[in-house]
Design brief:
18 helices; 21 strands; 34% helix
């Protein structure tokens, strides 16, 4: 049997674990001839279809996500048209809900698999071309039988997660990507209504020894960026400590973790505070700083504990913590989103990620959307259109605020000055958003330089006392000293003052100096640029009072 796996990803850097995870269990036995077509959603569809059609496969399989669903269905439908006898099986998060309507509307898809496929996919490969009644015992399989009746075999669950062969053992595991994904647990203790993992109970974990073996293999392949897929890294404090001890053995690797800020014991705080700088990158999914919103969404952990834990995480100098907010949650109002973004900036979050809620198949949020007054798009990405508390126009404002945060707060050159302005003024975010919207650029990709120019122009009118801070950020970002944000900078006939306080670097008399005055006196900031390397960013910074 020729099996074609269509591996359609969001970008080249990303690679789904589905193929290697399933192949690791099935192996190359049983007369299955595996073929893989890897592509991104941005590639010309005709080229992808042409490559797939050349094979004339007996069976086609693919994982369907909200980001690739539309393009994937177009590709699969065309492959089916040129190879009409092939059987098409699809899986993934898109099929965690009721699948009858989908199968009747997309007759070129033979069956879909709901749930975890590692154990049942190899079983399906043994009976893929047999009569449909032989599919009845395969958990999670949903299909139309020979008479057109819908068959639903429930949801496939892995009982012994620790007994699965690791994806890295498959010849299809992608070692050439800039990062790898590592799943040390499956399932989630939490019950968030908006998450597909909200119903995955119990949490199943790999033994630490197994995680160690896999990390040793990953490190041996030269990979230095590991995305840990566990839904809540610190759901178990003792296990979290064991994993942190393990991560310490790989000081040249960067680990990305999702952490629950409400579950921060004193012991875990000490462990995190003592981790080597740069080893960890944390994602703190707070979603909202409103207790009523989190309670409605079924998220465990008190709001007071969550905010205290988040404040601690953001204060750690040895790692970055990114915080997530979700617009469109029931009971969550637009003015509260603005206030919560300001609070997170006050905590010093390295990034603030504001997304619009996606009402995903199989989630409690979708089942109770009407009850909670949530209207959402029926097609991917299933974004919320309005709620009882937030109008469609307000959700658009939240989407524009997200772009503002990405472009100015999350951009390292402007983060410090923007954070200061957010904290100082409750009106700053709204004023800057109005300015960018009025200028017609809020939906336009802007270069780092253009963002700096606009921030300087905005502050000239609204926050002139902070212009020097924007100029400081401009210089440190290596931008041109001939443009507006550097209009007050002196560059000619400069010599070092008698005394200055060094901020960073070491002064060399061969350096090219520039001086940014502050106030009416002689005080200000000095920057030194290396003349031999021609680096645009300063290598030296000092201050004179």
């Amino acid at each position: 049997m020729k099996l074609l796996w269509i591996d359609l990803n969001s970008s080249y850097a990303h690679s789904s674990l589905a193929l290697p995870a399933l192949h690791a269990q099935a192996g190359d036995e049983g007369g299955v001839e595996w073929h893989v077509l890897s592509a991104t959603v941005g590639e010309p569809m005709a080229e992808v279809v042409a490559r797939a059609s050349e094979l004339r496969p007996d069976a086609v399989a693919a994982t369907c996500w909200l980001f690739n669903r539309e393009r994937l269905l177009h590709i699969v439908a065309r492959v089916k048209a040129v190879a009409p006898r092939c059987v098409v099986l699809m899986g993934g998060p898109e099929f965690l809900g009721d699948n009858e309507e989908f199968l009747r509307a997309h007759r070129f898809v033979t069956a879909v698999l709901r749930g975890e496929g590692e154990e049942v996919f190899p079983r399906w490969l043994k009976v893929w071309d047999g009569p449909r009644h032989r599919w009845d015992g395969i958990e999670g399989l949903c299909y139309l039988d020979e008479r057109g009746a819908y068959r639903d075999n429930g949801t496939a669950r892995i009982g012994r997660f620790d007994r699965l062969a690791p994806p890295e053992s498959s010849r299809f595991f992608r070692w050439d990507k800039p990062f790898v994904q590592l799943e040390t647990t499956r399932g989630c203790f939490n019950t968030c209504a908006f998450c597909v993992s909200g119903g995955e109970k119990p949490v199943r974990a790999l033994p630490i020894e197994a995680v160690e073996r896999r990390l040793r293999d990953i490190h041996g392949h030269g990979v230095r960026d590991v995305r840990v897929l566990d839904r809540t890294f610190n759901y178990n404090g003792r296990r979290a400590k064991e994993l942190l001890d393990l991560f310490r053995r790989y000081p040249d690797t960067r680990f990305h973790l999702e952490i629950h800020p409400a579950l921060m014991s004193d012991g875990l705080r000490r462990e995190l505070a003592e981790m080597p700088p740069g080893l960890l990158h944390l994602e703190a999914g707070i979603q909202s700083l409103r207790g009523s919103v989190l309670e409605r969404c079924g998220r465990t952990g008190g709001i007071r504990e969550s905010m205290d834990g988040l404040r601690f995480l953001c204060s750690l100098p040895n790692m970055e913590t990114h915080a997530d907010l979700i617009a469109g949650l029931p009971l969550y109002r637009l003015d509260e989103i603005f206030d919560d973004a300001r609070t997170l900036a006050g905590y010093g979050a390295a990034e603030i990620q504001l997304e619009t809620l996606k009402v995903l198949p199989g989630t409690d949020m979708r089942r109770r959307a009407e009850e909670w007054g949530v209207s959402y798009a029926p097609l991917p990405p299933y974004e919320v259109l309005e709620t009882r508390e937030t109008t469609a126009a307000e959700l658009q404002t939240a989407a524009r605020l997200s772009r503002l945060l990405d472009g100015f707060y999350n951009a390292k050159p402007w983060r410090k000055v923007v954070r200061r302005l957010i904290v100082e003024s409750p009106l700053f975010l709204r004023q800057l958003l109005d300015y960018l919207t009025g200028a017609g650029v809020i939906d336009t990709p802007l270069s780092m330089e253009r963002r700096g120019l606009m921030l300087y122009d905005f502050c000239k009118t609204h926050y002139p006392h902070r212009l020097a801070r924007v100029s400081e950020a401009w210089i440190e970002a290596g931008m041109s000293l001939k443009k507006a944000p550097a209009e007050n900078v002196r560059t000619k006939r400069l010599s070092p003052p008698p005394r200055w306080t060094v901020v960073y670097g070491s002064y060399d008399e061969r350096m090219r100096l520039c001086f940014l005055p502050e106030g009416d006196g002689e005080g200000g900031l000095w920057f030194g640029f290396e003349t031999d390397t021609q680096r645009p960013t300063p290598a030296f910074k000092a201050v004179t009072p």
